[in-house]
């Protein structure tokens, strides 16, 4: 019960930060927090998101994107 409240709080804060975007269609959820089913469920319940897509290794997507951008900048 307590954890459910924590998950809902995290979902509401996340949605508040994303408030200027329309989150009604499919959304990609990245970062280590995406590995927790409670967080995913709370995000669905607190929003109008149709489907939440989670990459195979969501905890590395930010680092992977940064590495790709750094490599691109080095080549150019």
Summary of the model, kept short:
This protein is mostly helical. It contains three helices and two strands; from the N terminus they run αβαβα.
Write the SSE topology:
Elements: H1 2-17, E1 27-28, H2 37-45, E2 52-53, H3 61-75
Parallel strand pairs: 1-2
Helix pairs in contact: 1-2
Explain how this protein is built.
With 76 residues, this protein is mainly α. It has one domain. 53% of the residues lie in helices and 5% in strands. It is built from three helices and two strands; from the N terminus they run H-E-H-E-H. The chain has a two-stranded parallel sheet with strand order 1-2. Helix 1 packs across helix 2 (37-45). It is elongated and about 50 Å long. It starts with a helix and ends with a helix. The model has no long low-confidence stretch (mean pLDDT 88).
